[in-house]
Amino acid sequence: MIHAAGVVAQVVDTEWIGRHLDDVRTYTLEHLLLTGLAVGIGFVVAFPVALLVQRYPRLYGPVLGLAGVLFTIPSLALFVGIIPFTGIGIATPLTPLVVYTLLILVRNTVEGLRSVPSDVVEAAEAMGYSRRRRLLRVELPLATPVIIAGLRIATVSTIGLVTITVLIGWGGVGRFFLDGFARRFATPLLLGIALSVLLSVVADFSLLALQRLATPWARGRR
Amino acid sequence: MITFDHVTKRFDDGTVGVDDLTLEVPEGEVVVLVGPSGCGKTTTMRMINRMIQPTGGTLTVDGQDVMTVSPPQLRRRIGYVIQQVGLFPHRTIAENIATVPELVGWDKARTQERVKTLMATVGLPDSVANRYPHQLSGGQRQRVGVARALAVDPPIMLMDEPFGAVDPIVRSRLQDEFLRLQLQVRKTIVFVTHDIDEAIRMGDRIAILSEGGKLEQYDDPERLLADPANEFVADFLGAERGLKRLALIPVSEVSAEPGPVVSPDDDRGNAAEVARSYGTDWVVVVDEQRRLRGWVSLHELDGRIADANLRQFALSVESTDSLRAALNAMVTSRTGVAVRLSEGGLYEGIITQELVSKEIR
Q1: Mutation to test the A interface, candidates B88, B152, B156, B157, most A Cβ within 10 Å
Q2: What does the pLDDT read at residue B306?
Q3: How far apart are CA B157 and CA B132, in angstroms?
Q4: Number of folded domains in chain A?
Q5: Can you give the pLDDT at residue B224?
Q6: Cβ atoms of residues B89 and B132 within 8 Å
Q7: Residue B140 pLDDT exceeds 90
Q8: Closest CA in chain A for residue B84
Q9: How confident is the model over A121-137, as pLDDT tens digits?
Q10: Closest Cα in chain A, distance from residue B201 (Å)
């Protein structure tokens, strides 16, 4: 351990980091902004699509198929290929990021709704719930754990993808990579990686905490 | 009252679930729909609250055609209990029971009061009110299901194999409690089961359905057992039809015989005479207060009865017991008869196999 710490101390120029704390803050905020917008917009798009699929199960195959195809487009190609259409504004990094969240969010929201036990749905219907009220009061609350699980996967994968947008002039903490590569200087590279991992872990745990809060009934269950 | 008037359900794929069913469920009675799987019993029940839409005929609830009422409105007036219970896992027991009061807009105080009353009615301890369904046993969950269905005191209840998922001991207890509860609340109940014994036990009337929702017979349990309309019904009732009937007939239906009774003061001579007149080789010993002391075989008797070694009847019956219980007492006693005692434990007479079979022939 002491040896490893020594190596890190040799490789990492803490003085340099100290001089770039402003960048750390700016890049982190940009990273959070891109991630938050991408997952947020992704969810706003995916949610009604999922409800539609739930209502008309025949759409399940085509919708998931389309989302799957979009998901397989190599991210680098998509980021670069989209520039002619979106210019250099925030839409350029955001559009692909949103597209990548869609498969995860649509599928998890649909699976969440489907995971509601059929006897519970039947009972709700028989008690006299209207379709809308049943969705809001019974199906969505019960689908919440699976939906939030989808948000966690989408968020963590988006945080990783944001670093790649450095190639099109954005990048969040990924901006440190560019500096590091250009100057063959390890400190910004390692800093960028560390910040990206830290963001992922914090975001994941925050959403997990949210999930626990939103589903008090599931506590202590198995 | 629920009335089926030539009601038919033809599914989209052309199969007929219920075929031209005409049936009346009288106010305050338990009607059991029973039959093999695929007989359309559940379909029939689910048409009442329009969980399934009838495709022909007229189905009325209290004189109102169900097709003229919006399903949510209709369903809030009809309690519904299913085998899997279908409790809302994300709501506490109290919240589950409060489901329909909340839907129809009762205020908080009234709802809370009602939940409390219902929990007591179905035998749930107050301590479970704030638990979640998964923290309860199967039997307790079923009670919550019944309480939830009773919440706004609907005049009609639909029950689809409500006790099917609990073990036999709990089931039999829930059945007893249900019958006791029904005596108080007098709901119009449609009860679906595939178990003919449960049907006989729970039903004021039983509708036996065959494949494709054809009504084979609609009668009270005793008439059904005494006089099955056709071979299908007889088969479905099973070979022990006679025994099942005995379970429905109370001991009070047959008049007990006085029996070969002697008093403790009698001696062997009196006893032999009494026994001979009855064609037995034993006598029943009853004291002046009409208390049963036991029985004794003539072969074991020399002097006074008071000095003899009396044997006890292991089982006895009262007027409210069933003839089946009496038969059980007979076959487990060496005397071959059942003694009937009053509620206060006084001797009333004996019941013989002959008396029982005369009753059901």
Answers
A1: B88
A2: 79
A3: 24
A4: 1
A5: 93
A6: yes
A7: yes
A8: A119
A9: 999 999 999 999 999 99
A10: 26
C-beta atoms of A122 and B99 within 8 A: no
Q: Give me the architecture of the B2-247 domain, per CATH.
A: 3-Layer(aba) Sandwich (3.40)
| Inter-chain CB proximity B72 and A120 less than 8 Å | no
Please tell me the number of Cα atoms within 13 Å of B214 on its side-chain side. Answer: 6
At B308 the pLDDT is 81
* The predicted structure's pLDDT at residue B168: 87
Hey, which residues does B341 pair with through a beta bridge?
B347
Minimal C-alpha gap between A133 and chain B (Å): 10
Q: Which residue of B has its CA nearest to A214?
A: B90
Give the structural domain span for A177: 16-214
The whole-angstrom separation of Cα A175 and Cα A164 is: 9
Query: Domain locations in chain B?
Result: 2-247, 252-360
Is B295 within 8 Å of B318 (Cβ atoms)?
no
Q: What percent of chain B has pLDDT over 90?
A: 67
Q: What is the ipTM of this complex?
A: 0.82
b/e per residue, B62-89, with b = 16+ CB within 10 A?
A: eeeebeeeebbebbbbbbbbbbbbbbbb
Q: Is the pLDDT of residue A222 over 60?
A: no
Select the residue of B51, B78, B134 nearest A125 (Cβ to Cβ).
Answer: B51
Q: Per-residue confidence at A2, pLDDT binned at 50, 70, 90?
A: low
Chain A residues in contact with B88 by the CB 8 A cut-off are: 120, 123-124, 138, 142
- Choose, out of B90, B91, B96, B157, the residue to mutate when testing the contact with A (most A CBs < 10 Å): B90
- The overall average pLDDT reported for chain A is 89
